[in-house]
Amino acid sequence: MGRTPLDTPARQQEVFAAVLHVLAEVGYARFNMDLVAARARASKASLYRRWPSKARLITEALKANLPVLAQPDEGTFAEDVRQIMRSWGEPMPFDTAGIFLGLLEGSRQDADLACLRAEHVDRAYTEHLRVAIDRAKARGELPAGLDGDVLVTALISTFILRSEEDDVIGSIVDGLLRPLIG
What does the pLDDT look like over 148-159, one tens digit per residue? Predict the structure, then answer.
């Protein structure tokens, strides 16, 4: 009896889960199709036929597993950020911090990954924060001249680097944002 084809949704999700687990465990530099093939019980050749590079395979796995993110409007910037970060932190079967660190590492080494990540993944995580920042500026909660890109980077970086801590979202919102914005 043959294997289930990689183009069935269930089989693709098995492969994508293997991809994200491997990326989180070994990082981008040591990530390879052999590791994914072994974990997903697939042939390396079948992976390469469908995804010609590890950058494209990783990007497709990430796109298929992006969390559903709603655009909150809680009335304050701090509460909007709290809700956005809660949606990032919804229980996932993957090591989110390991995945993001692998992506950052890989993006420094692989221009194709950097481009694919910026186009397909970054926007999904930053778009809601940018809307919240624009709304907060319009309400006067944040200074008009504030560099939104730097704030987005600071929030995401802090979330990723401290994601293993208890109540990291509370620490960021109540211990960082509220004192800064008053």
Answer: 999 999 998 888
